Amino acid sequence: ELQSLRAHLESRVQQRTADLQEANRNLDALAQTDALTGSPNRRSFAEQADRLLVQHHRAGSVLSVVMVDVDHFKRINDEFGHHGGDMTLRAVAQALRGALRDQDIVARWGGEEFIALLPDTDGAGAVHVAETLRQAVAGLNVAHNTASIRVTASFGLAVHEDQSSLEATTSRADAALYCAKRDGRNRVAVG
After folding, report:
1. Is 112 a catalytic residue?
2. Using CA atoms, how far apart are residues 151 and 186, in angstroms rounded to an integer?
3. Do 106 and 100 meet the contact criterion of CB atoms below 8 Å apart?
């Protein structure tokens, strides 16, 4: 009877250990994913970008960063409520993911901003990708109740330079994004 009890307890410990490991995997996934859009979050982006940068430096390849900001997002929230804004962000995230290659990384940067890291992509390639992304977003019609939410976004990009940090490249892409917004929105600017 003692051996039976011991076997039963060991089985319960193994099951609880397996349950705990599964719960930890789920927590890790939650900690790396933006709950609203299902995209990687800023933390996950940084971790993935660090790995790509190591590969980039080893291979001597080029990569680019694209910053994305949904145009007039406050107006969307004001006119359609936060539910409409949330639907818009989910649709934009899906459009961005759908227009990128498997090796590209797109993440929610914060608020209505997204960021994409494009490995093996020079300036001309990044402009082409950003324009493709711009068109994908501009083609969205987000159905909300009886209305349709029209969406555009502005894009800023920068090519990563070996001697600079990813933060510096991201800052240049962000500065280009603000130029795109200042120059009329729904456009691509290069930093």
Report:
1. yes
2. 9
3. yes
Structure tokens, 181 = 């917004």
Give the C-alpha separation, 161 to 188, whole Å: 20
Q: Above 70 in pLDDT, residue 104? A: yes
Q: How many CB atoms lie within 10 A of CB 171?
A: 16
Kindly write down the DSSP assignment for every residue of 36-99, as one continuous string: TT-SB-HHHHHHHHHHHHHHHHHHT--EEEEEEEETTHHHHHHHHHHHHHHHHHHHHHHHHHHH
Burial of 157 (0-12, 13-18, 19+ CB in 10 A): buried
Reported as a single tens digit per residue, the pLDDT across 124-139 is 999 999 999 999 999 9
Active-site choice (1, 10, 47, 112):
112
- Whether pTM > 0.70 for this model: the answer is yes
pLDDT number for residue 27: 61
- pLDDT at residue 95 tops 80: yes
- What integer pLDDT is reported at residue 105 of this predicted model? 95
